[in-house]
Automatic annotation (TrEMBL):
It comes from Streptococcus oralis. InterPro entries: G5_dom (IPR011098), LPXTG_anchor (IPR019931). Residues 305-318 have a biased composition (Basic and acidic residues). It comes from the Bacteria. Residues 1-38, 37-117, 120-200, 203-283 form the G5 domain. Gene3D superfamilies: Resuscitation-promoting factor rpfb. The keyword Ubl conjugation does not apply. Keywords: Cell wall, Membrane, Peptidoglycan-anchor, Secreted, Signal, Transmembrane, Transmembrane helix. Residues 283-321 are annotated as: Disordered. The lineage of its organism: Bacteria, Bacillati, Bacillota, Bacilli, Lactobacillales. Coiled coil: none annotated. The chain crosses the membrane at residues 325-345. This is G5 domain-containing protein. Residues 319-349 form the Gram-positive cocci surface proteins LPxTG domain. Pfam families: G5 (PF07501), Gram_pos_anchor (PF00746).
C-alpha cells in the first residue's frame, strides 16, 4: 500500500509525492475447526472501482457569452476495497469490508463558460483586381534560304496579360473570404516565330592574291643662306622631286568576294629629293636725292635699272648654281651705273 501527498490548484493536480509504502502480507487461509465435522476458512479479497470525476465551471470574460470550453480534462480515480471472506466447508458464509480507500484520486474537469457580450460583426465586401503575365509560345518554321542549322527570330514574342477580379469579404476589418469573380485574358500573348534554315551549306572557295599600289612621297623644302644674293632674294638651287612609296597587300576572296585585306609590305622605293632654296642676306645700299624733285628721265632710268635687275635675277634662277657668284657681281655693277647716270642728269639740270 502506497500513500501519496497530492497538491491541487483549482482542483487540478499539480504534484504528487510518495509519503509511505507498506508491503502487504500474503493472505493465508484461516482454518477454524468446529466440532469434528465443519471446516471454517477465511481469506482476503481485493477489488477496485472507478471514482467518477467532478465537473467544475469557471467564468471566462474573454469567451463569447454562451461558449463553453474544456480547460482541464477530467480523469477518473481508483477506489481499492479489501474484504475478508469466510468459508465454511468451502462455502462462503460471510464477507466483511476490511478497508475502503481511494488509491488514485479523481481529477476534476474544469469547463470555462464565456461571459463576453457578443456584438454583431460588421461585414463588408470589395472587389480587387490583379494582373498576371501570360507566357508566349515559340513556334518554328523552316526557311530554305537560310543555311542548314541556322536559327533566326522572325517575329519577337510578346507576353500577354491576364486580368483577375476577386470579391473580398471583410468581417470587422479582417479578411474572412475571397471569391474569384472573373478571370480573363485581356491582352493575348504574341507567339515567337523562329526560322530554321534547311539550305545545304557548300564549303566556300577561298583564294588569295597580292595587289600592289604606289603613292607619291612629297619632297621637303630646305632653305640655305647666300651672302652674295641681295637681301630678300630667293633662288632655287636644286629642284625638289617627289618620291614613290610602294605598298603590297595580300587580299583574300571567298567565293569571289573580297573578305579580307592585309598589308604585306610598305616601303619607299624611290626616295624624294629635297628642294634647296637660297635666301639672299647681302645688304644693298640705297640712294637719296636730298629732297630734290625727281627728274622724269632719272625716274625712267631708275625704273629701267630696276627692271634689268629683276630680269637678271630671273636669269640667275635658270642658271646652274656654279654661276651664282658671277650673277651677283653683275647685279652690283648694274646698280652702280644706274646710280651714276641719275646723278649726272641731276647735275645737268
Amino acid at each position: 500500500e502506497v500513500t501519496y501527498e497530492v497538491t491541487k490548484v483549482d482542483g487540478v493536480e499539480k504534484s504528487r509525492k510518495e509519503v509511505s509504502r507498506k508491503t502487504k502480507k500474503v493472505a493465508k487461509n484461516k482454518i477454524t475447526y468446529t466440532g469434528s465435522k465443519a471446516v471454517v476458512t477465511t481469506k482476503e479479497v481485493t477489488k477496485t472501482e472507478e471514482v467518477a470525476f467532478q465537473t467544475r465551471e469557471v467564468e471566462n470574460a474573454l469567451l463569447a457569452e454562451g461558449v463553453r470550453r474544456v480547460k482541464t480534462a477530467g480523469q477518473k480515480g481508483v477506489r481499492t476495497i479489501v474484504e475478508t471472506v469466510t468459508y465454511t466447508d468451502g462455502k462462503e458464509t460471510g464477507r466483511e469490508v476490511k478497508s475502503n480507500t481511494i488509491t488514485t484520486p479523481a481529477v476534476d474537469e474544469v469547463v470555462e463558460v464565456g461571459t463576453k457580450k457578443v456584438v454583431a460583426p460588421v461585414v463588408t465586401t470589395k472587389e480587387e483586381t490583379k494582373t498576371e503575365e501570360v507566357a508566349f509560345q515559340t513556334k518554328e518554321v523552316t526557311n530554305p534560304d537560310l543555311p542548314e542549322g541556322t536559327r533566326r527570330v522572325k517575329t519577337a514574342g510578346q507576353k500577354g496579360v491576364r486580368t483577375i477580379v476577386e470579391t473580398v469579404t471583410y468581417t470587422d476589418g479582417v479578411e474572412t473570404g475571397r471569391v474569384e469573380k472573373s478571370n480573363t485574358i485581356t491582352t493575348p500573348a504574341v507567339d515567337k516565330i523562329v526560322e530554321v534554315g534547311t539550305k545545304k551549306v557548300v564549303a566556300p572557295v577561298v583564294t588569295t592574291k597580292e595587289e600592289t599600289k604606289t603613292e607619291e612621297v612629297a619632297f621637303q623644302v630646305k632653305e640655305v643662306q647666300n651672302a652674295d644674293l641681295p637681301e630678300g632674294s630667293r633662288q632655287v638651287k636644286a629642284v625638289g622631286k617627289k618620291g614613290v612609296r610602294t605598298i603590297v597587300y595580300t587580299v583574300t576572296y571567298t567565293d569571289g568576294v573580297e573578305t579580307g585585306r592585309v598589308e604585306k609590305s610598305n616601303t619607299i622605293t624611290t626616295p624624294a629629293v629635297d628642294e634647296i632654296v637660297e635666301v639672299g642676306t647681302k645688304k644693298v645700299a640705297s640712294t637719296t636725292t636730298n629732297g630734290d624733285k625727281k627728274d622724269p628721265a632719272t625716274t625712267g632710268n631708275q625704273a629701267e635699272s630696276t627692271k634689268k635687275e629683276e630680269t637678271a635675277s630671273q636669269d640667275k634662277k635658270a642658271l646652274p648654281s656654279t654661276g651664282t657668284a658671277v650673277s651677283s657681281l653683275l647685279s652690283v655693277i648694274g646698280l652702280a651705273f644706274a646710280s651714276l647716270a641719275a646723278f649726272v642728269l641731276r647735275k645737268k639740270d
